TrEMBL record:
It comes from the Eukaryota. Its main location: nucleus. This is R2R3-MYB transcription factor. The lineage of its organism: Eukaryota, Viridiplantae, Streptophyta, Embryophyta, Tracheophyta. Residues 130-142, 161-175 have a biased composition (Low complexity). One of its GO terms (molecular function) is transcription cis-regulatory region binding. It is found in: Nucleus.
Amino acid sequence: MGRQPCCDKVGLKKGPWTAEEDQKLVSFILSNGQCCWRAVPKLAGLLRCGKSCRLRWTNYLRPDLKRGLLSDAEEKLVIDLHAQLGNRWSKIASQLPGRTDNEIKNHWNTHIKKKLKKMGIDPLTHKPLQPTTHQHPSPTSPEARPPAPEHQRPKLNTVKAEATSTNTGASATSSRNDQEPPPPPLLSKAPGFCTDEVPMMHPDEIMVPAAAPPSTTACAAAAASTPTTSYSASASSSCDEEALFPVMEWPDTACLMMGLDDDVDMIAGAPPAATAPWDECLVQPPSPVYVDPCFSAFQFQQEAWNKLELF
DNA sequence: AAGCGTCTCAACCGCCCTCTG
DNA sequence: TCAGAGGGCGGTTGAGACGCT
């Protein structure tokens, strides 16, 4: 359909975020909640595209994020979920509170893949690698891979089969999964596959509704009672977040007053300093949460978390 | 100590889906 | 019904860190 880019790239900053930018973004979201990401950079006074802001927030700045390497248990869970879901990182991440899809994806590519290969397991299919006599191409090369399981089909057809139980009443994105066929049989039951070779978890150990993080349950309930389309609850972390940062329903006039129709003009034409004149916005500039420019992102995250507890 | 290769992961890119008017 | 906008998602990239020779 010839979709336009999410934002005009002219004049927008790219690359690593500075502590100052982090401050602005977190301050804005803590003060105003999450609305349309496209408006966030403008209102927060950032020279970033909305998508970049969303990514930065969800992958790095959210107060409920865990930091550091995945634990053994988390790693196990990722492996088993990957066997069932394939590269649906957001779905996998939804089973690991405080972890992001990006984080899991990176961990998979850098750590778990290697581990599985060392164990003689194809990380793509979760089946034993072909005997070395058949490995003319490198085992790591795509050519060497056995045919992908059903769940590895092209993205075009990746309608997800998320169990409705975990996302009942959740966002519209979950409806993507409505048409998906049931997940493939567990690999532990796949012919030619020995569960002894992989630290595979039984599904009962994974789908643990009773042990699900309380926030997930709370989110499901919240989503059921207060449906919203502004923010997808596709991941439990998002659910946590939604519970912590209720999506703000801004009045329609707010968007009008923000001049969202003039995105391109504002960003491409105006100098950075003029991109977010607060007096043109319905929302007043958030009062800064802190002023120390040397504040690290982590410190700020802690600060933000403390502030959240006041809600 | 310097040079080089490898690894890690934050960030970007582009496609796809859903919603809305 | 359709086009456009917004947002989500998975794949990929590249800069810095790290390790080896």
